[in-house]
Amino acid sequence: MKLGLQIVLGLFSLIPLAFAAMGLLSGMAGADPAATVSAAVDNQYRYMSGVYILVTFLLWYAIPRIEKHFALMAMICAALVIGGIGRLLSQGALGPGTEQQQIGAFIELSSPLLLAWLWFVTRQARN
User: Fold this and answer.
1) HSE, side-chain direction, 13 A CA sphere, residue 125
2) Rounded-to-integer distance, Cα 101 and Cα 39, Å
3) Which helix (H) or strand (E) covers residue 45, if one does?
4) What is the pLDDT of residues 29-77, one digit of tens each?
5) Are 73 and 62 in contact (CB under 8 A)?
6) Distance between first and last Cα of the chain
7) Across residues 70-90, what is the average pLDDT?
8) pLDDT digits (tens, 9 = 90+) for 97-108
9) For all residues of the chain together, what is the average pLDDT?
10) Which residues, 6+ apart, have CB-to-CB distance to 119 below 8 Å?
11) Which residues, including other chains, have CB under 8 Å from residue 126's CB and lie 6 or more apart?
12) Count of Cβ atoms closer than 10 Å to residue 63 Cβ
């Protein structure tokens, strides 16, 4: 059960890392080359990409001893869910984003399922 969770988290962590690295390096032009955005929006987008990279690194820190890091994983999960809610608010205000953003929202809003899995792994490690 623990190894399966570690593998799933390790694989899923590559998705935000890839998109965050692209966002950090290419800004909004990488997300939507046809969009015209202000320097402030591009700046914020690149900043948030950097934050997403840090979330990936925190996840990597927790994965080897995942059963010992429930609190950290709960905070990461909360950050992902709050970000997913932000995506839903944006979709309601401006319409759907790209397909990649919609997939991101699905993953972010589904992250509590992984936290539930971790809860079982944590309980199993105590016994």
Assistant:
1) 15
2) 21
3) helix 39-62
4) 887 788 788 999 899 999 999 999 999 999 999 999 999 999 999 999 9
5) yes
6) 14
7) 96
8) 888 889 889 999
9) 93
10) 70
11) none
12) 16
Indicate the pTM of the whole model: 0.88
Residue bearing tokens 């015209």: 36
> Which of 22-61 are b and which e, b meaning 16 or more Cβ less than 10 Å from the residue's Cβ?
ebbeebbebbeeeeeeeeeebeebbeebeebbebbebbee
Nearest to 67 by CA among 19, 28, 9: 9
E strand or H helix that includes residue 66: none
Q: What are phi and psi of 32, to 5 degrees?
A: -155, 90
Least Cα distance to 116 among 73, 80, 81, 84 occurs for 73
State how far the Cα of 69 lies from the Cα of 16, in Å rounded to an integer. 20
- CA dist 59 and 108 (Å) reads 14
Query: What DSSP designation does 68 have?
Result: G
